[in-house]
Write a structure and sequence with these properties.
Aspartate Aminotransferase, domain 2; Aspartate Aminotransferase, domain 1; four-stranded antiparallel sheet; 11 strands; PyrdxlP-dep_Trfase_small
Length: 464
């Protein structure tokens, strides 16, 4: 054994303690460190011929790289829709690495049984039916891709072909309809060979809404003259967290033949709040559902789930035909359900967080985030030089500069706030206007944090 590696093995408990102490210092400093790092990253160094051991590597990382990492796990990182990692989820994530389970099948470990239990908890959390089965994947993009891959196979069934065998060309043109699709949808269509151009955007409701006009969706389906299609419904849009009427869309299945995929990447968590649960009404009618967990569930990157009513199609698309993996009979192993052969036990951090805090603990996070988003919306409404672009429907605040919101001025505002170290928000473009969006999903965020964000915005506006 390499001498340095052997030395690390002999000192493993000590090294893990060092890593624990370093991580604890970093996490405890999240409230005070700059939320974003906009400076120049260190220049790349050549690969070392001889290693310095784990302790030396930790020291080098602490010196060269750690200072430039963002505080994305902290309470004022409001960019994208980024959760943090609850204490229990972080514990589970560390143990995921320590156990290093191969979560492809059940042959030598109870790890896959834990994943099944976790999926059952999530299914109950989101109000899905027992007909829905699931699997963990890396994020919403892969979850949407898996759902649309199943839709592609379903379309083939309708036309009497097996796309998994004959290829996408056997389908001919595919019709994919959606009101305000996330950017991962055309990306998935590109990966699947359906093509980005096959996404047809259906008009949304008037009055600043991002929810699809169900009547116009019915018209679009009617124009297909009975040809089967795919409908992508949205449970929480990116800019304003608007929700399609899932129940009404599902009702269209009585007249039209289509696969219903629901993108509930973070909006699905509205189901936890009695005040907002009606937004997800009808999600149980979906053929496939995407939910991202490293957003509002606050487990570490990367983790999402994909649910479907059609496990037979899932096995047909993703089964791995190899003698050493076995045939997908009975309850299929996860290797036959996702694009990955190699998959870490992503379910463990989720299991820990759900076991530790239960439905009520995660409901509190959701409801507190929604209240804080409303609070920031009120502060922006009262702030000179700023204005809301949309009502604060759930946990995203979409706003812009009053007067002349050019791209340069709006992006300058975002950079000024980031450079202050107080907060980070991402730019967007909504209803023809350049804007910023603040997404609340971190379990740590408090009203005091929200006021610091608002104060930073007001100072940045006054300096433009």
């Amino acid at each position: 054994m390499d001498r340095v590696l052997a030395d690390d093995l002999s000192r493993l408990p000590e090294l893990l303690q060092s890593a624990r102490d370093f991580a604890a210092r970093e996490v405890s400093g999240l409230d005070t460190r700059p939320v974003a790092h906009l400076g120049k990253a260190p220049d790349a160094e050549p690969l070392p011929a001889g290693g310095v051991g784990a302790e030396g590597a930790l020291a080098r990382f602490a010196e060269r790289w750690a200072p430039g990492f963002s505080a994305s796990a902290g309470p004022r990182y409001l960019g994208f829709v980024t959760g943090g990692a609850t204490p229990a989820a972080l514990t589970g994530d560390w143990l995921t690495g320590a156990y290093d389970q191969n979560a492809t099948g059940r042959g030598d470990s109870s790890a896959t049984a834990l994943e099944h239990e976790t999926l059952g908890w999530l299914r109950e959390l989101f109000g899905l039916s027992e007909a829905h089965t699931g699997a963990f994947v890396t994020g919403a993009t892969v979850s949407n891709t898996v759902g649309l891959a199943l839709a592609r196979e379903w379309l083939g069934e309708r036309l009497g072909v097996s796309v998994s065998e004959a290829g996408t060309a056997a389908l001919g043109p595919v019709d994919v309809l959606s009101g305000s699709p996330h950017s991962s949808i055309p990306k998935a269509l590109s990966v699947l060979g359906i093509g980005r151009d096959r996404l047809r955007t259906v008009p949304v409701l008037p009055g600043g809404r991002e929810a699809v006009d169900v009547a116009r969706l019915a018209e679009a389906l009617d124009e297909l003259d009975g040809r089967p299609a795919v409908v992508v419904a949205n449970a929480g849009t990116v800019n304003t967290v608007d929700f399609d009427d899932l129940r009404a869309i599902a009702g269209l299945k009585e007249r039209y033949d289509f696969w219903l995929h629901v993108d509930a990447a973070f909006g699905g968590f509205a189901a936890l709040s009695p005040e907002h649960a009606q937004l997800t009404d009808g999600i149980d009618a979906a053929d496939s559902v995407c939910v991202d967990l490293h957003k509002w569930l606050n487990v570490p990157y990367d983790a999402a789930v994909q649910f479907t009513r059609h496990r037979d199609l899932q096995v047909r698309v993703f089964h791995n035909a190899s003698s050493y993996l076995g045939l997908p009979t009975g309850e299929p192993d996860f290797v036959h359900l996702t694009p990955e052969n190699s998959r870490r036990l992503r379910a463990l951090p989720t299991w820990f967080s759900l076991a530790a805090y239960g439905r009520e603990g995660h409901q509190e996070i959701v409801e507190r985030n929604v209240a804080l988003a409303r609070h920031l919306g009120d502060r922006i409404t009262d702030a000179p030089g700023l204005r809301l672009l949309a009502p604060v429907r759930l946990n995203v605040v979409c706003f812009t500069l009053d007067g002349d919101p050019t791209q340069e001025r709006v992006h300058s505002l975002g950079r000024a706030v980031a450079e202050s170290g107080e907060a980070f928000m991402t730019p967007t473009f909504y209803e023809g206007t350049h804007a910023l969006r603040a997404a609340f999903s971190n379990w740590r965020t408090t009203e005091a944090d929200t006021d610091r964000v608002a104060d930073a915005l007001e100072r940045a506006v006054s300096s433009l």
